Task: structure prediction
Amino acid sequence: MFRTIFAIALKNAFLRKSRALLLIVMIGMSMGVMVGLEGLYDGMSLHMIDKSIRSDSGEISLYAPRYRLENDIRYRIEDAGEKVARLQKIPGVRTALYRLQVDGLAQTATKSNPSRAIGIDLESEKAFGKFGDFLKEGRLDFGKNGTFVGSELARKLKLKIGSKVIFTAQDSQLNIQSIALRVRAIIRTTNLSLDERGIYLPRERVAAFLGLDPGSATQIALRSSGENDPLLKKEIQNLFPDLKVYTFIELYPQLKQMQSMMDIFNAITFGIVMVVVFVGILGVMYVSILDRIREFGILLSIGYAYRYIRFQIMMEALFLGFAGYLLGALLGFVLLSYLQIHGMDLRAFSEGLESFGMESTLYATIKASYFVSTFFAILLASLLSVILPLRRLKKLNPVEVIRDAQ
Amino acid sequence: MVGLALKNLSFYKGRSITTFLLTFFSAYFFIVYVAFMDGSHSSMLKNALDVYTGSMQIYQKEYREEGGYDYLINDTQKVFNLLDNTRGIRAYSARVETYGIASSGERSAAMMLTGVDFEKEAKLSELKKALKEGVYDSKGACLYIGSELGKKLQVKIGDEVSFVGSAIDYSFVAELFKVCGTFKTGMYDFDNQSAFMNRDYFDEIFLSRSSASYIVANVNEMEENDRIAEEVAQKLPEDLRVYTWQELMKSMVELMKIDSLFGYISMSLFFLVIFFVVMIYGFINVSTRIREFGVLKSIGLSDRAIDRLLLDEIIILTLAALALAVPLGAYTAYYFEIHPIVIPGMSEMYKQYGVVSDTVPTRFSPLTIGWNAALVFALNLLSILYPMLYVRSFTPVEAMRHV
Amino acid sequence: MIKLKHVNKYFYQGEPREVHALKSIELEIERGEFSVINGPSGCGKTTLLNAIGVLDEITSGEIWLEEREIAHLSPREKTEIRLTQMGFVFQAYNLVPVLTVAENIGFVMRLQGYPAEEIRQRVHELASILQIEEKLDTLPSLLSGGQQQRVAVARAVASKPKIILADEPTANLDSKNSIKLMEMMKRLNEKEGITILFSSHDAYVVENARRVIMLDDGALV
Result:
């Protein structure tokens, strides 16, 4: 019996072609665009988080106590190389590295800007966060007296490849020291503080400049498998009780909050769109049932059970909803794939975006959850939409229906 | 036709109520959304401009490109006279900047030291209002420094700070100053890097002889800014150039455009859905009345007259919804412009992005509300297009036989 | 007044299910006639009536209304002809559901731009002839079938068209109401001089018509 009803429902759902098509297009377009937006917004925050993790903090970072408050090389980590080696042995740690940073002033002949010398080991950085991806101009080779400069700093100081820049800072003996450098590469991480300040140098060079041991570091950062960072943090904290251990979220609360805000925004959007979609399906189902009220009256009078009608109508709504979902999933997938590969080109606003730590081409991300949650929401909206028309139908007396419709 | 349209609307209540509510909802939501978006943007801009940037700045042509002391404005008095004779200029002041390393005991940090006329600055920017501790307009070897910079150098009022940098003639300068005042504008970078000092003493130490890196000015009416800037530019000597706030804050302006763009993209999703639902309800309504349209056509009502009838119906519904949504939306926008929403801690969280206030105001702009409403109106008109074509596709006989 | 010359109408032309609905119809209807097209169900009565009322396209032939060929006019011109020269009464009454009885009767006059007062007078005049005066402010859905059909007739004659085309007007009425309707239409035909053409297979209608046009399988007999 239910198979027959199923077949009838399938036929009826698409009987009124224009109406069914409109509804399917509505669900499809709304869902497609909504999924596209979700993916784009998620992609934006994920990219920002990813860039911050790769360029700076990793999933977990270690600092000497007080360093994060004072930003002073007095609060440094000694024997960082040995500590990194120990960290790398912990299961769940993919790779680790250490950096030595100092704040100072970058100057050209005519311009000055506050900056931060970041002593790095290029090979470790490449393994840590694909440092090569951050190269905007030039070559990743320090050579003699070479430096890589953050893109915003380069813009402010009008630095080009080959430009000379002088970095001045206080060394460990409290003396003011200067170092003359030649720009070899311009780096754009989209991590705002690095792009605005970063003067990248070989780590040993920074150590020598500051009069410190080559094993000195201001930060140890590690990449984890990301499965359970809080637990890993605890483990590392136990291993190095004298150091401060932070997870990414603790270091970049504003990015995490931005992501939560995007999630909330997406959820609200999702809710509103689904309510409106529900209203759309409701309208179509209501009229579709009213149109056939005589037919249902006849069916009821010849002994067709109300539950069969209910099942038939529910199936009709589900078919329509599902057809809309399929179109929406297809549209959304195509849109997201395009945005994932080619991105949304906002180069016209590149200065604004980059100066606030964002890419000028925004890439989307695709998550199965977009399609799963939308699937259930549309199915639910479809099912809910028949409640009202069904109640109306239930109140009817078959004889009256047939008589009235004649 | 309007009479018949009205009767149809009251007869087909389901469609009328749904369309009315959806239109009302979308128009109200749109007006309020845009008001909040524009409001937060203009408040961010206004804060940034009021704090320090001003609404226009005058430079030697090469200064912003090349930088350095070779491109200072030497004859500031000439520009002052010109600004005095320009109507609409509220206040102006000359600033001269230099960079160097500031140290206090064991701490050092990069610092932008600016020589200013404290009296004029008080009228122009919010430097004076930002005073946190000590004195604002100190004389002699006194510094008025940003609170974050003070923290970094670990100095308090009365402490000494040494400064190493260069004078205007590129000669080496090393000078000892006393911290006489601290300020907090809320703009993190600014508070983290800047210090100010009395112009006369600055000239003495850095040999700047009343020249200026740039001259900053504010106007009485922000809307007049572009026009006034243009007027000033006409009168300026060849080698000087005016930059309006749009150029000075280019990245912020661009970011706001992006934010608006995303806002509109998000809104367009709602519009898309609502447009379709309004269209579906319009279509369903029309399709249940096909026989009626068949009769009307057969007794001599032209296709154009039927189009007109359908248009009248949607226009009446839309105008009714807008008549409610627009005043309500306008009131909301107006109310929150005067009583902005406060989100405690917001400025702290987003200090890096130039957010200096915890309030989120709206912007009440009749023009914006006007185009918001016009867009909703246009979309509703568009939504009836397909139903119209649908009715037209039937001959009178087909329409009358339609079941 | 109306002349059909060699009128043919095909449905689904060129397809396997092709139907030749009207076969070389040659017909002339004089002014003031009270005629009925009669024939078995499916013989083409409604098709012929629709063709005369320029509601439907014909495949070939000509239809003349007085001195004007009307079958090949543009849709807009046909609409104009229907509005100003013809009145229609349908089997299913087909009143505008949102308009009151009075508004329905006066609707065609309003479309033609008659002054409100003239419409009002005419509506009352017709309502009294058709005995629906008490129902003028009622919506059609609250009327009986017979009353609705009388309103439809009133609407059709209100603007004094040259011809009224009535497609099975008594099909949904009981015999009492059918008789009443026929009497009223006869009176209108005599009093107002309006040409009336029915399609019907109702024996009473056929008996009362002055001329019976017999149609069988799309051809006149």
Remarks:
- The radius of gyration of chain C is 17 Å.
- The beta strands of chain C are 2-11, 19-29, 34-38, 60-65, 68-69, 86-89, 163-167, 195-199, 211-216, 219-220.
- Helices of chain C lie at 45-52, 75-85, 101-112, 116-130, 145-158, 175-192, 203-208.
